[in-house]
Input
Amino acid sequence: MPILGADMKAGTLTEWRKQVGDRIARSEIIAEIETDKADVEVECFLSGVVEQLLVEPGDTVPVGTPLAIIRVKGEAAAARAPAPAPPAPAPAIPSAARRPTAPPAAPGARLRVSPSARQLAEQLGVDLTAVAGTGPDGRIMRRDIESAAAARVAPAKPAEEALDRQARMRQAIAAAMSRSAREIPHFHVTLDIDLSRTMNWLTRHNKARSLKERVLYVAPLIKAVSFALREFPELNATWEQDRVVLKPTIHVGVAVSIRGGGLVAPALHETDRQSLDELMDNFRDLVQRARAWKLRSSELSDPTITVTSLGEEGADAVLGLVYPPQVGLVGFGRMRQRPWSAGKRIVTRPTITASLSADHRVIDGHRGSLFLAAVDRLLQEPAKL
Amino acid sequence: MNEDEIRAVLLRILQEMVPQEDVAKLKPNVRIRDQIDLDSMDFVNFLVAVDEQLGVETPEKDYPKLATLDRCIAYFRSRLATKK
Output
């Protein structure tokens, strides 16, 4: 079960997309899971053949729990398979993590129960010996416990189960932001940026484009941040075990507000290498999927920094909390027309207030303010973005 | 297409975009984005849907003309009339 954010403790497997014996390539989708924040397509991090599925659909398991065993090319099949040559199997995941799909059952005697079903039975006070299993070989599954519990006078369900998805998302955000406020010594710097060059360039760029192809100004903002990160690699990093870990690639997490409340910040990958058109296409797709609760595991686990933009409405500036273990969050307030000093004249310009919230263990205010100055400089040359 | 028909199309599109809101309650002469939570991408998606249903593609320079429901209706009515 991949960890897809500092706030994730467990996930529920909802569907296997591959079965035992299927070939799978790296980055291909192997399963779907449900977390507090999204339905997530889990990408496989290996290429090979699916040898064993270790978790049943419907099971909720803690992060770090192995979901499947993949045999990579060149590895021998596991001992039970009729392998012609029997060298010691080299599992794709540590052998200590291997476990059978069900507890070894003594003939006719022991109950076969999935671990999460056993846990649920304890929570709900269901007598396992009175439950008929519907899983393979009569194994008792979560659904069997749920049916058994529903068939009698139901005890109060755990509060967690009664919460709807949005409430669970709120809890996840609460956990991550509390950790951020508790652990990260924040500082904030802000800078007002004249966006007229960027907006004029976009007007020209969009003129001949259809509605669907037009680039919104959020794309140059993300691109400018990405280029600036090349100059300030300490902000494209995480803080892990009391030290900073610089990340070799720039994956900007973009904060997407969910209708009715809530927030998720999935990654746009390698944003410094995408054209503005590509960035816009990918951003549009990401927002749509985030709001439909459909994200990929790498999008939730990969962000190396977060950008939040308030768009055209609301507050002038945003001073956010860093999403741990990241070390920086760049905020953009709403774009607004306001008086601007241009030489000896006062003119009206579209402006935006950029902010950096950063982890003081990693970077100091001086470097932070230079970073924002770099973002400003890059936005004054939009054709180069 | 008359005003009421255009209004019905626009409200149907908006309702699909923000199912949790009741767009029938929108005040026609108050900024739409002051009444329901739409961001700039939603706004573009709204225009894409209008284009698909009314056959009117809105240039970027006309975006400020679409702040309220009444102004949207007047704008699309005028664009449809010019198309004929």
Notes: The CA atoms of residues 9 and 53 of chain B lie 8 Å apart. Chain B has a mean pLDDT of 92. Chain B is about 60% helix and 0% strand. The first helix of chain B runs from residue 3 to 17.
